[in-house]
Amino acid sequence: MKKNNLKRFLASLLAVLMLSQVTGVAPGVFADFGESSRSGIATQAAKSGEKISLKGDNFSIRIPYNDDGSINFDALYQKLFDECVDVSNSTPQQRSEVTIERYGSPLVYVKLEGENIYSAIEEDKTYEIKFTYHFGWKNLNFKDATCNVTFLGRQAVPEIANKDITVDASFNEDLSIDYGALREAIWEQVSVDLPTNVKFDKVSFEYKYNDTLNIWEAFEGKNIVGDKGIPALDLGANQVKLTWGGDKEYKSWEQEITVNVVDGRTDTSITFVDEPTVKIPYNEDISVDMSALTENIWAIVNDITPDDISKDKITVLFDGKTLDKASISEGSHTLTFKYAGTQTYKNFSTDVTVYFVGREAAFELIPDVTKVDMKFASATSYDYKATAKAIREAVVKKLAADESINLSDVTVEYNAAYVGTNFKPLDNKDIATKKLTADEEFTFRLSWGGSNGNGTALYKPFSAEVKLTLVDNRLASEIKVVADPSITYNKDGSAEKAAIIASVIDYTNSTLPAGAEFTVEVPTIVDTSIGTIWKDITDNTMDAGENQKIRISFAGNAEYKPCEIVTFINVKKAPVSITLPIISKLYAGEEVDPETYYEVNPEDPAIDVYLFFVGVNTNKETCVNVKLTPDQEKLLKVIPSVYDKLREGMKLREFKEFIESIPNIDKIEVIKNILNILNTFDNISDNTVIAIGTPAHAGVYQAIAVSPETKNYEAGKCTGSLIILKNWKSVKLEKSDMFTGSKNEITVTNATKIANGEEGAYAVVLTQNGVILNNNAQKAVHYLFTGINHGKLYSSSKMPVEPGRYIVTATVRGGDFFAFPKTFSFTIVADSTPNT
To answer: Spelled out in words, what is the top-level CATH class assigned to the domain 269-358?
Structure first.
């Protein structure tokens, strides 16, 4: 072999070996070192005469199988060699000398059993088969030959004749389907006309769980961790697949059939009475009496078939849930009676619609009531208790026969919220809520729950809401007044109100309740743009006058609505009654007290009473004394000249002339009233002396009390008599303080003053309670002075003025006072001479 040829041979050999290493295919597949080789080795082989020849190009060979239905490849390889290789014209004479492979892909041949990505041969398919004979050094030389071989399989198992069967299911003790028995029952029907080679214990059974995904699973289903798993086959129509792996005689077999799995156990059923109703019984604590309820439920069952099925094997569900106290309620509900069945009895689950009746209603709402009378406690307050009673009686009907349950037990509330819901009692005092009023629609809630709020064992709680308007249906009232109504003025507004109520209202023609109370009002002085503003007469007394406007109002009460009337009345002046004592006595010097001397009715500061005393005093003078009240005297003092004159006393003529000389004097109310009253006296003249105060002199006087006519009062007058007695009480004749010392000395100068009658100079003074009486009283004191004067006897009523020793006797004669005589001795002494 030339050197270059050897190099090319070795390079080709290396490439073939590397390709065989990568693909796992024999080296002979990739290279032909036979006749196509130009190497010396190939030429030498060709010259040696090795070859392999086949009996033809196309063959049909039946595949030999093992008992388990798997291909016996050893036998198949031998069979191919025996039936295809022409050993008479081939170098190899035994199977072991030849490699037999099938075509896999271009340049690739594989084992009949399959290798890498290539599967084993299959029955009834034709394959290109290559026979390779290796020889030479290291068997690197080879000869091959190819042909087409159709591999004939085993016999086919015939199709199942009936592919839609019905099978009765059997059940285990736990009431699950006995799938072993189910498979046997299926096989019993489908194995007819099948070869005996197909054994039951070699056949697998599956049902189609998911048609879309074509998922098949064993009858028992499959548990999958982390998933819900695949359920077991159940009753009903199921797609079932039977699979047999075949044997040496018959091919593997797979059949799909429809199996209608039915429950073959004895039929069971439960029936009920028509329109079943169940009464819900309650314990005293208002809990459901489950024992009694269970009895009531079973009472609606009409029949159970077979009749040996025990009730305790049947479960009852309430609306699909466990029957317990919490789930029970009134109304229409579904009861489900479930029987699990046994190995011989079918199960059942039967629904029935049952109306559950609870406790009886104690009360019910009366329909179509929209108005109820509002009850009043007074004109301005509601009687909430009576109103609640009226609402109950109008809208609630008692149904309970139990006499311990009363209509009054129903609670009445109203929605007091401005927005939303907030039920409150009728007498609600919450300032943040809406108050209940008449003639306005409110929502009322009426409820009863018994002592615990849940009703009683026999009666369910009651609650209802209704919209009502509480209507003021009290009787209409009306005030009418008499013709030409009038009253007499009274300074007390309450008295005027009483007079109006008593004499102005025409009770005969008015519509008013007995004992009705009224408000009487008078208008204010100024009317406003919004109308008359009224004020209560009790604080705004009406003056006398005609055609005066008033308003009389009745505020209403529990039975009558309010009403009012505006009318006009006359107010007459009130008469004045003055009372004087018929005969009263005073002692001279005492003052009449107007506060106690007379009585005036009515008592009103506006009634100004003037008190006059007319008579002849001890001085034989006709006089009029005017006793003023402090207020009257205060007003008179405004004009001092008049006041002073009247204090001294002056004739009536002089008084009139003096008054006329003073401008506008008649505007002084006191003076005007005194003059007007004096002009009404018949027994006085212009020479009558007029003075202010109580008569100073003893005598008999006529007392006259007069009140002038005013805006609201008529004139009033009364007469009596006053006797002024000489006053002896605590009256004494006492020595003048002009006498000094134990010898009663008096100077010539002071004696001369007494003798001359100078004011305030007296030998003896008339006192009362130690107080020297006025000059008028002192004029009634008479003296007798005796003594020796210059050796001569002195006796005279006049005070001596010469020094000497004398005796004086003083007595009271006339005048208005009486005192016992006073006698004492005294000495007239010369005046002392001043020191020079």
So the answer is: mainly beta
